[in-house]
Design brief:
11 helices; about 400 residues; two-stranded antiparallel sheet; single chain
């Protein structure tokens, strides 16, 4: 028996991780903003002023120039919030909340699309049984089913693709923008000066320290944590020198968020694609633990806040999802919980006689969808086989 190929959307998280590793390596060596290289200087020379990126012949410089307006806006927003609150940690949290609030419609579409795809999986199972051994007919029937139910599998991919460049921009803002001694040129956007900031290194005075950053990157309520640097718990222990408490917290929250939207471990979701997706849910957060050894602490603050925001958004739309039972335990507050904005099951179209107008079927809540009802719905959705076209065995003559 042939094993179904993993869906294209299941490969996106792996591609994002590979792309993130490659872009991080490129940014560390060359810098997205050429005039402000991140990292610790190997020589005694101070860092040059941070200036907007200019287009160049190499792809990295061209990419930096394309994303420079977003970088500047986020950097100006972060500096303004730091000036307003006096704390760079709170500024990162507020900036993350503003960004995620602006992206609510996009991520809502992704959550709804994922849930709707799960709700019609029993009908997809019926298609697999009916067209077993004929991948071409199954793919065609599957696309017809998606079209009839108004489900677009690609609508859930855009937010995943958006997270990588946004994460890279936030990384550059923290690693380069917060460590540069003279970022005054970045405070003007297309000739408009947007923020006035007094640097803590006394920029523009006789007491100017060109080796100190302009912005205070220490967070007192996190134990004087420097958000612009890597923060590990056991730096002198070889096998644990990469371990970061912030990275661990981020991994745990990612696991919670993924379990809420993963397919349930029921008979209707026992296919190969669902199994691969459930394995990725456990595997991907473990990979993020390794990032704690070389990514700045401020990036994990952003990651933690955006994950908590995503969990809250998913809770309102899909509830606890597949989070429970956990290790065989299901708490009382998760039993029979109905989300505040539930996703309705895609409307099925009942095929009538030729020339008759198709009428939408009655939409039942997901709790009323018994196996018999799902099977009947799938039978009404799938076109019947053409008579006389049978397999090799038992062919009518």
């Amino acid at each position: 028996m042939s094993v179904p190929r993993p869906r294209r959307e299941l490969l996106l998280p792996l591609l994002l991780l590979v792309g993130l590793a490659l872009l991080l390596a490129a940014c560390t060596s060359t810098g997205i903003v050429p005039a402000g290289s991140g990292g610790v200087a190997a020589t005694a020379a101070p860092k040059p002023p941070l200036t907007p990126a200019q287009p160049g012949a190499d792809p990295v410089s061209l990419l930096a120039w394309v994303f420079n307006p977003i970088f500047q806006l986020l950097y100006i927003l972060l500096v303004w919030l730091q000036k307003l609150t006096g704390d760079v940690g709170i500024a990162i949290i507020l900036m993350t909340l503003i960004v995620r609030t602006a992206l609510i419609p996009l991520f809502r579409r992704q959550i709804v699309s994922t849930k709707r795809m799960q709700l019609i999986q029993p009908e997809v199972r019926e298609l697999q049984k009916r067209y077993k051994g004929d991948r071409a007919k199954f793919s065609q029937a599957q696309m017809e089913l998606y079209k009839e139910r108004g489900v677009n599998p690609a609508s859930g991919c855009l937010p995943m693709l958006l997270q990588l460049p946004l994460l890279m921009i936030i990384y550059t803002v923290i690693s380069q923008g917060l460590t540069n001694p003279n970022p005054q040129a970045m405070f003007s956007f297309f000739g408009l000066h947007l923020v006035d900031y007094t640097c803590v290194n006394h920029l523009g005075t006789a007491a100017y320290n060109a080796y100190a950053p302009c912005i205070n990157t220490t967070v007192a309520w996190l134990g004087n944590l420097d958000v612009s640097k890597v923060s590990v718990l056991f730096p002198k222990i070889p096998f644990l020198s990469w371990f970061s408490v912030l990275a661990a917290a981020s991994a745990v929250l990612q696991l919670v968020q993924s379990r809420m939207t993963m397919p349930p471990s029921t008979a209707a979701f026992s296919d190969q694609n669902s199994k691969v997706q459930r394995q990725l849910v456990l595997f991907l957060p473990l990979i993020s633990l390794a990032y704690g050894g070389f990514l700045p602490a401020g990036l994990f603050i952003y990651w933690i806040v955006t994950t908590i925001f995503g969990i809250a958004q998913q809770y309102l739309i899909v509830g606890w999802g597949s989070m429970f039972p956990l290790f065989g335990y299901s708490p009382g507050f998760a039993r029979d919980h109905r989300p505040r904005f539930p996703v309705e099951e895609p409307k099925a179209v009942i095929r009538g006689t030729p020339g008759a107008t198709a009428k939408p079927a009655t939409v039942r809540p997901p709790t009323d969808r018994t196996p018999a009802v799902r099977s009947a719905s799938a039978a009404a959705t799938v076109r019947p086989r053409e008579r006389g076209r049978q397999g090799r065995r038992g062919r009518k003559r």
